[in-house]
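Q: Entry one of two.
A:
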Amino acid sequence: MIKCAATSCLAILLAGFVQFTAAQSAPPVPVNLKVYVGGQQRPDLMRELFAQYSAAHPGVKISLEIGGATSELNQKYLNMVLTAKDATLDIFLIDIIRPAQFAAARWAEPLDAYFGKDAEAELSRYLPAYREANTVNGKMVALPALADSLFLYYRKDLLAKYNEQPPTTWPELARIARKIQQSENNPNLQGLSFQGKAVEGAVCTFLLPYWSLGGEIIRDGKTSFERGKAEAGLEMWRTMVSEGIAKKNVAEVGTDDTRKEFQAGKVVFGVIWGYAWNHFQGGADTRVKDKVGVVKLPAMPGGKAVSCMGGWNWAVSAYSKNKTEAVSLIRWLSSPYVSKQLALKGSFHPVFPAVYQDPEVLAAVPWFADALPVVESARPRPVTPVYKAISDALRINTNTVMAGVKTPKEALDEIEQRVARALR
C-alpha cells in the first residue's frame, strides 16, 4: 500500500480527477478522409456535398483529389496507388466495369459487414443492374453513385418532317435514315453515328446487337459465345457503312466524335452516352437545340431492345485507416438525397428509379422521363476480374471489322480464342 501525507494524497487525487475530466470533455480527434474523383465528375458539386456532410459530422474533414478526364487515366492512377498499398486515399469513384477487378485485387473494402440487417432493404432501392454490377461472388464491392447508358438520340424535327416515328429495329432505322438522307440531298448528313474506334465504346458497339439476340460472353464464369448471333451483329454494322448510312471511316469515330457531329447538325441518329444531352441543348455552338429526341436503342429483328450500361461507383480503399468513417460517407453519397442533388445541379443520371420520377427533378431535367426506360434496359458489361482482356478482344476486333481489315468471321475467331484464354 502506498503511504502519503493527507495533503499529498488529496493533490494526487485532484490531479487525476482533472485529467479524467479533461479527457472526457475533450473533442474527438478529427478524422481526415481523402476522396478521389475524375475531372469529368463535377468536382465543384462534390465539394458542395462534402461541405454538407462535414457540417453534419463536425469530426470528419474531407479533402478532394481530382484525377484525369477519362476512365482510363483514372484507372492508371488508381492502379499505381493501390498496387503500392498506399493508404493515402480513403475513397474513390470507379468505373462501372471495375468492381470485379478491384475485388480480385483486394483493393476495395468489402461492404456487406457494414450494412448488417438493413442490407437487403437498403440495396433494393437501386436500379437492379447497378446492384448486379457492384456485386461480385455475392459480395458488395462498391455502392452505385452515378448511372448512365447508351441512348439513341434522333432528330425529331427531321423525323416529323418526313412523317416517321422513332425506329424500334436496326433495319427500320436504316430505312428511315436512308429516306431522310436522300430527301435532304445533303452529302454531309450521316444517317447514323456510332463508335467504331478501338476504344471502350466499341465494346458496346459489339454487344448491343449481340445482347439484343440473347447472346452472352460469359455464363457461370465460362465462355458462352454464340457465333451466329455475334456475326449477325457485326454484319449489321458493316451494312450500315457499306450502304452509306454511317460514314465510311467509322473505324476512326470515338465517343465525342459522335457527340460533336450530332451537335453540329450532321447526324440523323446517334448512339452515345447521357452526357451528350446537355451539349445538344445548351452548347454554345449547338445546331440541334430543341430538335432532339431520345428513345431506347433499336433491337435486332426478333430480338429485344437493350442498352449498354455506364456509370460510376463509390468504393473504400482496403488500405484506408478510416474504413468505418469512409463507409459512412459513401453510404450518404450513394443515398437518394445525394442522387437527387446531382440530378438537379449536374444532370447526372440517378441510380434510384424513384428519383427519375421526382417532380423537382423532372422540372429541372424534363428528358429524364424518357431516360428512365432506356437506363432500365441497360446491361452491365461482363463482370469479371479479367475484363480488360475481354474488352481488348472485343474493341480491337470490332474496330478491324469496321475498318474492313477483317471479315466478321475472322474477327470472331480471334475474339473467341482470346476470351477463352482470358477465362482459363
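Q: Entry two of two.
A:
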Amino acid sequence: MLFPVHPATIASFRQAFFPSGAKGDPGDAALLLELLLQHRQHLRRLDPDTAETRLLGMLIELRRRLVDERTRQSNRLTAWLKMYFPQPLNWIDNIDAPLGCDFLDRWPTLQQLQRAKPETVERFFREHNSRSETRIQERMEAIRTAVAAVQDTALLEAGAAATGAWVALLKALNATIASLDQQIAALPKHPEADLFAGLPGAGPVLLPRLIVAFGTRRERFQSASELAAYSGIAPVTKQSGKSKSVHFRRACPTFLRQTFHEFAAHSLAKSLWARQFYESTEAKG
C-alpha cells in the first residue's frame, strides 16, 4: 500500500519543524513516517486504475504531446515563411497538414514555384484531394501574379533550408500521430465507452480522454467536488478575516484539466443547456 506525498507537502512540513532549512534523507524519512502515522486522513492511497484504462491514458497523453509539438514546429515554420515566402499561408488552410508540407517540400520558394509548369501544379492539388476547380484556379491565378516578398538571396536560401527542416519534422510528427490514432482505434473496446459516447461533444479524440479522466475506478473520489479539485477545474479560495480571494488552481494534472476544459468548449455546440449556462455566466461578467 502506497501513499504518494507531494514534494511541496514534505517541504512545508520540514520547514515547520526546521526553520533553519536543515535537511537530510534520514530526517525526511522520519517526517514522512510521521505524516503517514499522524495525518493519514489527508493522504490519498495510490490506487492504480485498470491496465486497459492506464494504457489508453498513456497513449492519448502521448498523442496530445505530439500534437502540441506539431503546433510548435508549425509556428516556427510560419515565422520563417512570413519572412521570405508568405503566400502559401493564404493559399493553404493548414500549412502543417500533408498538403502544406508536400507543397513546401516540392516548392520551398516562390521562384521555384513559378518556374513549374501550371499543369504540374494543378495536378499536385488534385492528387492531394483538392476537388474544387474554382479553388484550384484561384490558387493558380494567385501563383501566377504573386510577387516575391524579398530579393535577398541569403534570406531566400536560408529560408528554403529552414522550411525543409521544419517540413521534415512536421511530416514525421504527422506520421507518428496517424500511427497512434490507428493504435488507439485498434484497442479492444473499453468497457466504459458506451457510458461516455452519448456526452455532447465527445468525438473520436475526446471520448477516450473522458474515459481516462473519470477512470474506471471512480470510488477513488468521494464526490464530484473532489474530482473537480483534483483536476484543477475548481478554483482555490483563500480567506483570512474579512479578506477573501479566489484564484486559478495551478497544482493539478494539467492534461486532465485540459481534457475537461476542451470537453466544456466542445459541448457548447452540441448541448443547449451548456450554451445557455455559458452565455448566462458570461453575461454576469
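A: Comment on entry two: The beta strands are 236-240, 243-247. Residues 51-186 form a domain with the Helix Hairpins fold (CATH 1.10.287).
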